[in-house]
Every structure is written in C-alpha cells, then in structure tokens.
Design a protein that fits this description.
alpha+beta
C-alpha cells in the first residue's frame, strides 16, 4: 500500500507514515518487497503497537 493510503487509514499524515516506516526498516522490523511490506519481527512490531 502507498504511504498516503496507510496514513488515511490511521488518520495521520503521509510524512509521519514515511518516517515511521523508515525507522521500522532501519531497525530490521519491516522490509519492503515488490509491492508489499514484509514483517520480519512480528513480536517487536506488536510490542511497539502496544505502547
């Protein structure tokens, strides 16, 4: 999905989504595939979402 689509779903700005996605990729939690996002560390992502 595009960052703007994600932003719309969670009621935030595209820039915030881009920044957060970049941070998650730098941490090795997410990876971008061809037209998809791959969650590499589900538990870490869940922990971040819970806080």
């Amino acid at each position: 999905p595009k960052h703007a689509e994600i932003a719309n779903c969670v009621n935030t700005h595209r820039e915030a989504v881009s920044r957060t996605m970049s941070d998650l990729m730098r941490q090795g939690i997410l990876r971008r595939g061809s037209g998809e996002l791959i969650v590499l560390q589900v538990d870490r992502l869940r922990d971040l979402a819970d806080h």
